[in-house]
Amino acid sequence: MALDYETPVDRMATRQGPAKRVDTRALVQGACLVLIEAAGFAMNIVLVVLGLPLFVFLFLAGWDLGLLFAQLGNLADHYRYAEPVARHLFSQDLKVAFLFAAGGYALLRLPAFLRRLEGRLAEGDRRHD
């Protein structure tokens, strides 16, 4: 049984015409666009997840900042006088809740982000043709 395979040398010998050059400008522009869009997407996720508890607490306080800060002071007093183990567990729970909320929201918005990114990248391709 003979194996038929093509090596890079074979490909170079059978190539027709000059080598195709890579458009580095378009490559760098595309990479910058992806990085900017991804950073905006990530910051949007973080700001929404951090702002949602503020919205909920303001809603529960009847949009009264005095009541909101009174409740936050009450929470701070309970946290300050709690045992170190309880404090540690509470902070771990907050971290896990933040990660789950951010991850869930990111998964929910990811398809729309990818469609928008694909459209922006395709728009750049059409503009340069």
Question: Can you walk through the features of this model?
Answer:
This protein is mainly α and 129 residues long. It has one domain. It has 4 helices and no strands. The protein has helices at 8-14, 24-60, 65-81, 84-128. It is elongated and about 75 Å long. The model has no long low-confidence stretch (mean pLDDT 86).
Main traits of this protein?
129 residues, mainly alpha, 4 helices
> Could you tell me the radius of gyration in angstroms?
27 Å
Mean pLDDT over the residues: 86
Tell me, briefly, the overall form: elongated
Uncertain runs with pLDDT below 50, 5 residues or more?
Answer: none
The biggest sheet, with number of strands, parallel, antiparallel or mixed sense and barrel status, is: none
How would you classify the helix and strand content by structural class?
mainly alpha
Write the layout of secondary structure elements.
Layout: H1 8-14, H2 24-60, H3 65-81, H4 84-128
Helix pairs in contact: 2-4
In short:
1% of the residues are buried. This protein has four helices and no strands.
